[in-house]
Amino acid sequence: MLDVRRLQVLRAVVTSGTVTAAAAHLGYTPSAVSQQVAALEKQAGTELLERVGRGVRPTPAGLLLTEHAALISSAVAQAESALADLRAGRIGTLSVRYFATAGSTLVAPALAQLRAEHPGVRVDLELADPEDPFQEVVRGRADLAVVVQARGRAGDGFRLVHLLDDPYMAVLPLGHPLADREVIDLHELAGEQWVGSEPPGPCLKPVIDSCAAAGFSPDFV
């Protein structure tokens, strides 16, 4: 197997025209450069350089390996650049799980901004399991999940980041004693009849929990 480092030494000799110039470019001694080329010739089983005056020129085999060394150098540079982009978050895949109503209000504008700032990042979007929105993050199947969650809860295998507080509105009939109020204490609605328009889930649970904290259970009729 040909040694990649020795291929790059050969390339430096061929592009500079002399062993001495290649040594100066690489930071080696001329003797070390000559030894590397000799070892590569032994690996290749043929001469790679021939003397011309005070310099050297590649044999057909030397020219062939120099061309491949240039390709290898370019591939390594591309790999290093891609790795730097990946580390900086400019490329890669981001797996996101979210609940349905967050799609238009939170996920869509965030995705638009992400694609504008990091067009090389591919985003994998799927709805989260409403029964356990954290499970795919904990198991490493998703990078993050957008969830409805009471503050203060944490768990093993994930970290909670507070995005925003979603305000809830009390919709009351015209003429109701509380209809003209801008802010209502939740306990003031304890005796009211409530409209329940969704099955148990992540959006209803905060209402139930908040009412419980206010000392009552809403009367869904």
Q: What is the strand and helix layout of this fold?
A:
Blueprint: H1 4-16, H2 19-26, H3 30-44, E1 49-52, E2 55-58, H4 60-88, E3 91-98, H5 102-117, E4 120-127, H6 135-138, E5 144-146, E6 193-194, H7 205-213, E7 219-220
Parallel strand pairs: 3-4, 3-5, 6-7
Antiparallel strand pairs: 1-2
Compact description:
43% of the residues lie in helices and 14% in strands. The chain is α/β, with parallel strands linked by helices and 221 residues long. The termini are far apart.
- The count of DSSP E runs of length 2 or more, i.e. the number of strands, is 7
Q: What is the residue-mean pLDDT, rounded to a whole number?
A: 87
What best-fitting shape do the alpha-carbon axes yield? Answer: rod-shaped
Biggest sheet strand line-up: 4-3-5
Distance between the termini: 79 Å
Could you tell me the radius of gyration in angstroms? 34 Å
Q: What is the domain total for the residues?
A: 3
Q: Class by helix and strand content? A: alpha/beta
CATH fold node name of the largest domain: Arc Repressor Mutant, subunit A
Residue share in β-strands = 5-15%
Biggest sheet character = 3 strands, parallel
Low-pLDDT residue intervals, each spanning 5 or more residues: none
Helix content: 40-55%
The helix tally amounts to: 7
Determine and state the CATH class of the largest domain.
Mainly Alpha
Task: Tell me the CATH architecture of the largest domain.
Answer: Orthogonal Bundle
- The CATH superfamily of the largest domain is known as Winged helix-like DNA-binding domain superfamily/Winged helix DNA-binding domain
